[in-house]
Each structure stands twice: as C-alpha cells, then as structure tokens.
Amino acid sequence: MLMTVVTIYTLFVLISIYTSVMQIGYVNLAKRKKAVLLSDADFLKAGNYAVAKEKMSIVSSFIDYLMFIIWIGFGISYLSNNIIFEDQAVMNIAIVMGFVVINSVLSLPFSYYEKFVLDEKFGFNKSTMAQWIKDTLISFVMTLVLGSLVVWGIYAIISNFALWWLWSFVFVFVLLILTNMLFPTFRAMFFDKLTPLKDEALDAEIKSLMEKTGFVSSGVFMSDASKRDTRLNAYFGGFVKVKKVLIFDTLVEKLSTKELLAVLGHELGHFAHGDIYKGMGIIGGMFFILFAILGNLPEALYLEMGISQAPYLIMILLILFMPVLGFIMMPIMGVVSRHNEYEADRMASELGGDGGAIELANALKKLVTENKSFPLSHPIYIFFHYTHPPLIERLKELGVDVGDADKSSLEGKCEVNL
To answer: Is 0.85 surpassed by the pTM of this model?
Structure first.
C-alpha cells in the first residue's frame, strides 16, 4: 500500500514537471516569433519571465518530491518519536505544526528568490528586505496560531466521532468560508493598508455599477499594494453584507476610469452568476473527496509506515496530498472557471454599454502588459493550469480583432534550455 501511495505522488510530480517542460519549450520558441498583443520588447520580456517561473517551478517540484519521500520514509516517524507530551491534544498539535514549520522554513529560499531575484529582475518588486522579513514573520505567527487551532479542532473531532472524516470535512469547509469572509479584514490588519476610495466621482460610478447587479457592499477601498509590487489587481471579499470592493492603487494608476469600471464589471459578473459560490462548492467537493479517502485508508498503510493511525498522521497526509488532488481536479475546475470567465466578460461589456467591450479589452491588454503575462501557452499547460481562458480567446469572444497567432511553436522539437 505504501508503494501505491508513493507511485501516485511520483506520477503527480512527473506529469507536473512534464507540463512545465512543454510550456518552457513552447514559450522559448514562441517568444522569438511575431509578437501578439504586446510590443516586441514586452512580448520577449513576458516570455522570458514565463520561462523563468516554470524553471523555478520544476526545481520546487523536485524539492517537494524529495521532502515527500523523506516524510513518508522516516520524517513523520522521527517527529512522532521525538515530540512527546502527556497531553495527547498538545502532542498532536506539536507534531503537525512541527511538520508545517519545517516545510515553511524550507520554502523560504524559494520565496526570497522569487521576490528579490526573479521579480526584481523583471521589475515587479517594490518591497524592501525589512518589509519582506516583517511579512514573513507575521505570516509565520498567524500560521502557528491559526494552524494550531485548526489542528486542535480536527483532533477533537477524530477523537470523538466515528464518522470523523465527514465532520472534519464540515469543520474545514466552514473555516474556508469564514476565511473568504475575513480575508480583507486580516489583510488590512497585518499587511496592506486599506483606505476608503477618495476619488468621489469614481466611487459614485463604482457604486452605480454595483446597484445594476444588486451587489451590496460595505464600501470601496483602495489598497497600498504598490509598496510591495507593481502588479495590477482588484477583488471582492466577504459574503452577504460584509462584502468589500478592494482595488490595488496600481490599478487606479494604470487604468482609465472606464477601463477600471470594466474590470470591476467583470468581477460583478462573477457575483451576479454566483461564481464565488460555485467555486467554493467545487473546492468543498475536492476536500470532501480527500477526507473520504483519508477516512477509509487501509490499516496496512500505517503498518508499513511504522506509525499508529494517530490524528496527527491523518492531518499530515491531508497536507501532503492536497496538491495531488488539486492537480487532478484542476482540469475539471479549469473548464468550469474558464466558462465563468467568458460569462463575466460578457456581462462586463453589457454593463459598459456602447464601447463596453472595447474598454474591457483595453483593460485586459494593459493587465497583460503590466503583469508581464505571456499571452500564449501550450495546450497541455492550459489544460492543467489555466483557470482563465487565454487572453486572445477572451478578446475574440469580445469581438476584438487580435490577428492570427503563430502556432508553429507546437510543431517539432521544443527548446527547453534548462
């Protein structure tokens, strides 16, 4: 049974690396051909950034695989033999959080490299070392505190209910919903400073846009995200009457008023179609499957690992296999999500009236340029990773002429250059 578990994880890693290799080869060829949507210089730069990100992803996958083998082979057993408390709840929390802390520490070099090497090279990073250390420490403390509470809750459920996997799923799913509701508040408390939008004319137009879709918000806020990053973004957070509209200051700086309203119209389209709830339902389904599997694992697996079926082991296996199930579910989630994106684009263009589609198209082009998103991807990469349709396809749906992309990068040998 243990060999089956290792084989499943190995296949996950191999397929993940394969998709990255195909993407690297495709982009390495495509970036030298006729530019699409971007200027020649921006097209090449976005291609180089996409390749660099995938190379880092491959290295990360190798490290994750090595750590998986170590944890399954002897790491979990080592923790259980060396972290001992009389109180079983405390011991389970200490073992699980010890596992989390070790993985978090090992991920720090990747976080540093992405922020101060990769993002610095391509002009994204605005954060200082002091800011990064502060953010990292805050995230670490929040993980310890909130993570310990979650582990304690699952431990209590496993210890007191025969159908522990079902009630654990309910517990975790409720926490996911609460996290979505409270995320803007936590972000404002510990990371970004949120201030009410000061542009009264823009604020009035946004609220008028929200009224058209019945979106009730507790306010429109601007985030000082530019102190860390140059990327553009906006999102809605919360549920029911605690929903907030969050706009990055970079978005206000780079987009015209009509383009900004088109982006928010797209987000309102997701609200009007209930996409947030659909997404939560899909994620809930994924967790349900994962907990059901963990709740019915044969005892042979635990015997082969040399560890009793303790709550901490179940929780560590849950963490280890979440990426695997997420990867398996991604093609299904991607199909649904990409359909939702097309529908949200359609509603945004309708909300914008005459010229609404053009304003949204212009905004999307600027987002691609500023975020250095390469507009072309290998089909297999899209299948496994894309939650949004390729921008070219979105623009075509909006009736925008984007010309013909050179598809010859899919033919013949891909240049990987690792």
So the answer is: no
